[in-house]
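User: These chains co-purify. Model them together.
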Amino acid sequence: MNTHGARDLVVDSVTGVDLTLPVAGAGARCYAFVIDWLIRAILFSAWYGVAALIYNGRWSFAAPLSPDTRWFVFVVAPAAAIYFLYHIVLEIILHGRTPGKRMAGIHIIARNGSSPSVGALLTRNVFRLVDSLPLFYGVGLVATLVTKDHVRIGDMAAGTLLAYERTGIDLPRPPANQARDRILSAADAEVANDLLLRWSTLDPIARHRLARAIISRYSGSGASLGGDSDSALRAQLETLTQGRPV
Amino acid sequence: MTQPDIRDQALSTALLQRTTQWQAAAARSERLARERASDLADAAQLANDYRLLAHDLARARRLMPDSRMRQYLEAAYARAHATLYREAYRPAYALLTLFRDEIPEVARWLTPYILWATAIFILTGLTGYWLVHTYPDLISLFASPDLISTVERGHLWTEGILNVVPSSVLSLQILTNNIVVSLFAYCAGFVFGLGTLYILGLNGLMLGAVFAFTGQHGLDGALFRFIVAHGCVEISVMCLSGAAGAAVGEALIRPAHGDRLKSFQIAALRSGKLLVACAVLLVGSGIIEGYLSPRADVPLGMRVAVGVGYWLLMVILLFRPAWNDAAPHTPPTTTSPEAPPKS
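Assistant: Joint model of the two components:
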């Protein structure tokens, strides 16, 4: 389960580290759909209204009694294209996103975690014909409520689903009072910790040599500052592994 | 503090020092998701970033599972993964490959379905013809009252259609309607193929019934004259989209690739490619139906030539031999190339 209460999609990766993607639920999907519907309804109305006014040459939005080619080409066809091709065009151009999905913080992904292909997006949108049945996306809504990945029929056909986009996460800053070159690298941290773990089992000369080598890299002056006794070296190494300068 | 605690603390601290590298990796994958890489090194660096993020994420998940650092790494890793596995954006080449290789391959795969769909269409067409021929009153089940009264007055409903609607508008209306019907025949395969069967059967019944009805009023020749130029391809496309829908339905009834969902997805994506060809062919049919079919001055010979010629063009587009038989042939994908999700 993710922070949104839905399950995570876990995908294998060649790195051996699984990818976890928080799957969006029916609520986020509905929110995105309503926003998108409002946007395209506004765009549709705006185009139709302005084009009809220009076509009629007076304050009237009515269709002519005998509509000619100009009426269809300049008024009806573009308005219909805006309404019906909104999702297809925007999802392809924006790689699985629309303004509504952006506002809901979700996007379409393939089941392997990548951006969906154009073919998948087309298939997904063609199946809106089924999902929109019988009214108000009834089939699609029921499907998103009952399926474990909250997908509609179009998503099942296309092998896609909607996942939350994790954006706006602030990274904690590294301690500001340290010079960058005095902080243990991940590799040195591992060596230092292994050295500490095996401290008592190593030959004193060998452990002193290793400890001095690591400490000298991060002490600035090139020499350890706390003395060269066994306990002093160990203490300095421990200080270093705790992220504090020696 | 125990030694493992010290070690974990040191690792966590060391991990935190790599934030600038993560931010650079996130910025790079964000940029490459929108635009092409500037050079090979730029693209290769994304693979290095991906490994770096995977490595650090694995540590963060163990050391600080509830931290913001982990959330950031999860997001950056997912973004890098999506960018790295994104398909190359080559629309012209994709279109060329689609029409040159993929659509003929899908058409060959769908051949048994196409034959079945055609057989169903013909059978229902003959049934519709027999029904109305035997019981003329049944035409009210298949045709609108306006159409019936027009034919009973001795006219086809297509006569003078250009006086009402311009050819361009008529073409647009017809091709839009036909494309939607074809897409519906394909999508309706989702109901285990029953929806597709219904659409194919209904259209076959209607065509047969209307031919029988016009025949009773001596107008079947005129109807054939109107239909032949655009109908050869239009009816064939109905059978093609029905075949695509039938393949989708069969994938649900008899899954061939693991579970039903996977089979459905493979069949839908694969057979859906044929719908692109269907849509293109229907644009041509719509233009013929809008500009040529309603014109009274076009002789029957020319109509037949256009209809048969366009139909042959469709057959060549769909069923021509492979572009290059000598080239190594990639067998049709039977399993998804995608990495399977674990849950």
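Chain B has a mean pLDDT of 87.
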